[in-house]
Amino acid sequence: LRFWSNIPFITMPLSRAHGKSFAHRSELKHAKRIVVKLGSAVVTRGDECGLALGRLASIVEQVSMLQNQGREMMIVTSGAVAFGKQRLRHEILLSQSVRQALHSGQSQLKDMAIPVLEARACAAAGQSGLMALYEAMFTQYSICAAQILVTNLDFHDEQKRRNLNGTLHELLRMNIVPIINTNDAVVPPPEPNSDLQGVNVISVKDNDSLAARLAVEMKTDLLIVLSDVEGLFDSPPGSDDAKLIDIFYPGDQQSVTFGTKSRVGMGGMEAKVKAALWALQGGTSVVIANGTHPKISGHVITDIVEGKKVGTFFSEVKPAGPTVEQQGEMARAGGRTLAALQPEQRAEIIYRLADLLTDQREEILLANKKDLEEAENKGRLALPLLKRLSLSTSKLNSLAIGLRQIAASSQDSVGRVIRRTRIAKDLDLEQVTVPIGVLLVIFESRPDCLPQVSALAIASGNGLLLKGGKEAAHSNQILHHLSQEALSIHGVKDAVQLVNTREEVEDLCRLDKLIDLIIPRGSSQLVRNIQKAAKGIPVMGHSEGICHVYVDVDASVEKVTRIIRDSKCEYPAACNALETLLIHRDLLRTPLFDQIIDMLRVEQVKIHAGPKFASYLTFSPSEVKSLRTEYGDLECCIEVVDSVQEAVEHIHKYGSSHTDVIITENEKTAELFLQHVDSACVFWNASTRFSDGYRFGLGAEVGISTSRIHARGPVGIEGLLTTKWLLRGDNHVVSDFSEHGSMKYLHESLPLPQRGVD
């Protein structure tokens, strides 16, 4: 969930007993022996004459990287026919032009027709050149490649099979990449319907079947089949409602409608699926993916080996529950049903969830105790994260109170009219609030987040996908169960889904057709990773909580230490905790300054000095490495400023637009600070810790947003709504409003309906 990155594969264990294929994508990183099959559409150019050199170079680079990490790589390649066609066309054109010049004596050549080239001749002309190209490319990575040409007969002759097997093993032992291809110069035309001949025999009639046969013969861990489509679809790609199949299981063929084969090559997708299932049955995992897309072809092979959700993964192990795609569709349908309920019914669900939190307190705390014990035994969580993971009776009571606030305030959230305009006579326009759609909320070590977010999604009529950290698995499970129990009273159980499959966060962030908004709740690193990984899906949140408190020259002695202590020490791991303390220069070496320092020392807060503060001291604390640091612990930076204007400039330069505070008794100075600081929350004489949905009276929050679009600050129900326009007319057409038409625009503002009144 939290730690995806480009970790070198060499750190992974690369050995396993062959016999069963991998059950999950996440296990593919353990693949030791890998076959990469390059389809004709991948290797050849769009004109089918010549090779796609840039694409081929990228593939060689990826294979070389994996080879140099200790894996055993083999390539089954097409391309000899296309390369040979290019060479033969060139030779024919050259010879024709010479003959024409000799016989006609004319310097200007006439149009020359190129005869149809026989495939076997093209293969014979192209095989040596194709291999020379591979050798040149692999040499750039200090890797040797070797060519092996095979036919179907080589697999039926036992002696030839043993020879082939021995040759391949010897090449792999010497760290050489075998380049295998069907010997198209001599291979006979494929026989119709001869692709599969039972369990133990697969007829080698194309490179798909060759790759499958080779993968099983060599007991490879993974077969990657690259084509010109994203993977296997449930109907021909490009057709209406065609959906990419993430995981394909034996027996699912009936649910797939196959289209035509690719523009080049012998086999279509049906041949690939048959070959893949045969290899899977032989103990080799298979992924079919797109090797031609310019945005992904440069890393498609390494992404697959990393376990990322690329293409279609063939697996023999069906998960017990629904896939995340199915959960997304269930959340979408459930959310729409939820939005159609009466406001009182949605509120009733939330009240029921609040009651369950207190009624089932013992079961919740018992599950949470298991999580805490496992985390402590494994030693994988720092103390601040352990505090976030911990639930208590008081926390559950506070949660229940917050949920009841949400229920009470949700009565007029969905379907509220916020604008009415009379466009013309009998043509009225309304703008009304509606749910955003399906929310994906990703949270770390915060099981209390689950009921809060569930209640806000229910109140706003949104479908919800929840992805919690595995360190809170037991707590999340029971809290999700209680959420579904509450939803069941009005038959909308599916609206809130907990993702328990092995999907990585990066994969979830690519589900742009299922998810409308991503809300991360966790560390700044988590938020940054999600913002980077999200493809086409907006992310609501903040990457950092660098909150400032500015102590003005006119600050009250009584207020300063209380506000600073609460801002820094009440919950230092929170995103709204003080991280940088700005002090007016005139307060240095005053009793107030001494009180601040003494209080921080008593609270055991480690102080880092900013550059200006350090220059005033003979013996200063450790100088801060960066003024843009979120400590998340009992640490803070102190810096000196000359004025409130300089404090504002410092906050704009080094802050994160989260929450910033001024402590002063000068109202004019305070108003200047409040109006000029461009942050989501700006306070006067109050702790940074008030930046919270519950404390704002929102009941709870899905997070704090520092973005400038849609929602900002603590995000409650209002931040989870968008709008739509409703136009009610009576046979109105735009042509009636033309210069000579019979209608005129009025654009009159109409009064809004009173809340609670139909």
TrEMBL record:
GO terms for biological process: L-proline biosynthetic process. One of its GO terms (cellular component) is mitochondrial matrix. Residues 324-588 form the Aldehyde dehydrogenase domain. PROSITE patterns: GLUTAMATE_5_KINASE, PROA. InterPro entries: AceGlu_kinase-like_sf, Ald_DH/histidinol_DH, Ald_DH_C, Ald_DH_N, Aldehyde_DH_dom, Asp/Glu/Uridylate_kinase, G-glutamylP_reductase_CS, G5K_ProBA. It catalyses: L-glutamate + ATP = L-glutamyl 5-phosphate + ADP; L-glutamate 5-semialdehyde + phosphate + NADP(+) = L-glutamyl 5-phosphate + NADPH + H(+). It is found in: Mitochondrion matrix. Gene3D superfamilies: Acetylglutamate kinase-like (3.40.1160.10), Aldehyde Dehydrogenase, Chain A, domain 1 (3.40.605.10), Aldehyde Dehydrogenase, Chain A, domain 2 (3.40.309.10). GO terms for molecular function: ATP binding; glutamate 5-kinase activity; glutamate-5-semialdehyde dehydrogenase activity. Pathway: Amino-acid biosynthesis; L-proline biosynthesis; L-glutamate 5-semialdehyde from L-glutamate: step 2/2; Amino-acid biosynthesis; L-proline biosynthesis; L-glutamate 5-semialdehyde from L-glutamate: step 1/2. Residues 32-290 form the Aspartate/glutamate/uridylate kinase domain. In the C-terminal section; belongs to the gamma-glutamyl phosphate reductase family. In the N-terminal section; belongs to the glutamate 5-kinase family. Can form homodimers/multimers. This is Delta-1-pyrroline-5-carboxylate synthase.
